[in-house]
Amino acid sequence: MLELKSISYSVREGDGELGILNDISLTIPDHRLVVFTGPNGGGKTTLAKIIMGLVTPTAGQILWNGQDITSLGITERARLGISYGFQQPPRFKGLTVRDLLTLASGDEKLSKDKCCQYLTRVGLCANDYLDREVDVSLSGGEVKRIEIASILARNAQLMIFDEPEAGIDLWSFARLTETFEQIHAAGSGTMIIISHQERIISLADEVIVVGDGRLRHRGSAAEILPRILADTLGGCPVLTKEANAQ
Ligand SMILES: Nc1ncnc2c1ncn2[C@@H]1O[C@H](COP(=O)(O)OP(=O)(O)O)[C@@H](O)[C@H]1O
Ligand SMILES: [Mg+2]
Question: What one-character-per-residue DSSP string does the chain give?
């Protein structure tokens, strides 16, 4: 179970402070699929980075399975079963896709078959990619899918995906959505997915709208989705328009 208690985050700006997240409290029970959505600049990525340990909150506490992890770094949190996929994943020159998946899995002899399974789940043909380097020769969408495959290989207890749809074509997106659905159905881990996509939002057990650094609304997909589409959440842009503009 993940618990955020009164999390705030601010940065110095000139003489003052700029508040980015404001007093966010949230509990996510195990095996849930939770979607964070809301306008760009609302604080979703910052919140995800705080959960992963990439950003330290200015105030508040994070508990994971009852343990206070607020002061733990990313490596320690990874060891405790939390993994994170960047909105814009980094590239690693000299490291092949197979190396990356092997490292992620922690299994020194990860079979070619296993690698292929992970890549297939994100809509990539393994033969074309296993020996490619995770460098600038890959497109943004390819790097994104490879990173998602590496999160799957990690088999983490909490998986955080930041806008997995970004830069991904519709065909692969359909495959990816299916993968999220299967992981959820298998009850293997908790997923937090930051997304603007109706298809992903509709998979969620709970949808949390983050805006202006606060939790603005929360509810089931059936409750929140029609309100997002009809733009009746107040100040929340029509997300289909936002998605189309990407
Ligand atoms: N280190 C920082 N310094 C200044 N502004 C920041 C910093 N980190 C995030 N922000 C700002 O905080 C807001 C929330 O950003 P972000 O969490 O990326 O939003 P989202 O993922 O919802 O689009 C944005 O306005 C962003 O520019
Ligand atoms: Mg973001």
Answer: -EEEEEEEEEEEETTEEEEEEEEEEEEE-TT-EEEEE-STTSSHHHHHHHHHTSS--SEEEEEETTEE-TT--HHHHHHTTEEEE-SS---EEEEEHHHHHHHHHT-TT--HHHHHHHHHHTT--HHHHTTSEESTTS-HHHHHHHHHHHHHHHT-SEEEEE-TTTT--HHHHHHHHHHHHHHHHHT--EEEEE---HHHHTT-SEEEEEETTEEEEEE-HHHHHHHHHTT-SSS---HHHHHHH-
For ion ligand 2, residues whose CB falls within 5 Å:
45, 87
Atom 17 of ligand 1 has which residue's CA nearest to it?
Answer: 43
- How do residues 163-212 score in pLDDT, each as one tens digit? 998 888 888 888 889 989 999 998 889 999 999 999 999 999 999 999 99
Record the pTM: 0.89
Q: Is the CB of 41 under 6 A from ligand 1?
A: yes
Ligand 1 atom 25: residue of nearest CA:
41
How many distinct structural domains can be found in the chain? 1
Give yes or no for residue 48 CB within 6 A of ligand 1.
no
Is residue 46 lining ligand 1, measured as CB closer than 6 Å? yes
CATH at residue 208 = 3.40.50.300
List, for residues 115-141, the tens digit of each pLDDT value. Answer: 999 999 888 888 899 999 999 999 888
CA of 88, nearest ligand number: 2
* Domain housing 235: 2-245
Q: Which atom in ligand 1 lies closest to the alpha carbon of residue 163?
A: 21
Q: How far is the CA of 156 from the centre of ligand 1 (A)?
A: 26
